[in-house]
């Protein structure tokens, strides 16, 4: 009887910890920007409507939540999720910050993904939803960065 009770109490904890993955996405733009500067990496900004935008959810499911993407993106960029949910309210400060980012990056549709180098304020790539896989997408990010013109040495 005690064994059944223990199993009943701890089984949900085991399931929840096993199913929870560490998110690679920051939601704090300023901290992520500072990290991007420190690491000399661009940022990958994902403007999403997580609880209402079908194409955002599809992009998240098919690409951004894949293990290969999650395990390698931080080698290439600093990922930032800028969310605009409709069914839940963001804290007022976060909502205002996201609105400012939306205006700054001229986002007019969801999803919008921007590969951005904050060191020289350069947008390396901007896209919406398209079908791809992690390997192709990560290769494209690397190619976009390596094809960026380098500043002349002083």
Automatic annotation (TrEMBL):
Residues 1-18 form the signal peptide. InterPro entries: AGR/TXD, Thioredoxin-like_fold, Thioredoxin-like_sf. Gene3D superfamilies: Glutaredoxin. The keyword Signal applies. Pfam families: Thioredoxin_2 (PF13098). Residues 38-129 form the Thioredoxin-like fold domain. Keywords: Signal. PANTHER family: ANTERIOR GRADIENT PROTEIN-RELATED, THIOREDOXIN DOMAIN-CONTAINING PROTEIN. This is Thioredoxin family protein. It comes from Pelagicoccus albus.
